[in-house]
Write a structure and sequence with these properties.
Mean pLDDT: 93
Oligomer: single chain
Distance between the termini: 55 Å
Largest sheet: none
Low-confidence stretches: none
Order of helices and strands: HHHHHHHH
């Protein structure tokens, strides 16, 4: 029996995972292409460089852009396939075992933690806002909230009924939670980088 047996298929979550995964994958692919072009020609100016503040060149050339010894975008090219596969599988009628949901959730939590670290590095250390990076932030943040609350509401992680009901209620508030998360990042960026002065 699956951990979510008896729980209606999360069609909305499945569709979001496919769309968000596709956006994240494309953004990561675009960044990978830019990195390859820079490696092939050191004088190449990335097409996502729009000024001192909004650019990806500084991010790609920094050590933060290759934390594990290879360009970070390659992680996204591989990693964003997972949400698309999970979403498509849900739409096709698949019901996953508890371990599968937990493994997927751990991957999403890890991605979210990495994105938060990259946001901090980008705003506080590099002083830039990378367009393709921000696209990855935009899809990873709600993905984290949706998958986390789904796992907690659907008895993937055993919880008391009252706690599970609370998380089920919170699931409907994900748009607002996501908006609050975006707002927090925007405010921090404005305070630190004075973004509005560049507009």
């Amino acid at each position: 029996m699956t951990a979510t047996a008896g729980f209606s298929r999360p069609i909305g979550l499945a569709i979001f995972l496919i769309v968000a995964g596709a956006i994240g994958w494309y953004s990561s692919f675009a960044l990978t292409v830019e990195k390859l072009e820079v490696l092939a020609d050191s004088s190449h100016v990335p097409s996502c460089d729009f000024g001192l503040l909004v650019q990806c060149g500084r991010n790609l050339s920094s050590w933060q852009g290759s934390v594990f010894g290879f360009p970070n975008p390659l992680i996204g090219v591989g990693g964003f396939v997972a949400p698309v596969v999970v979403g498509a599988s849900i739409l096709s009628g698949a019901r996953f075992a508890r371990w599968y949901w937990i493994a997927f959730w751990v991957g999403i939590v890890t991605a979210f933690a990495f994105v938060v670290w990259l946001i901090v590095q980008s705003i506080f250390v590099l002083g830039t806002l990378c367009p393709w990076c921000m696209a990855v932030w935009v899809v990873t943040i709600p993905m984290f909230w949706l998958v986390t609350l789904h796992v907690l509401r659907a008895d993937v992680i055993p919880l008391p009924p009252r706690a599970r009901a609370a998380f089920h209620g919170a699931y409907g508030w994900v748009p607002l939670i996501t908006f609050a998360s975006y707002t927090a990042v925007a405010v921090i960026a404005q305070v630190r980088l004075d973004v509005l002065s560049y507009l």
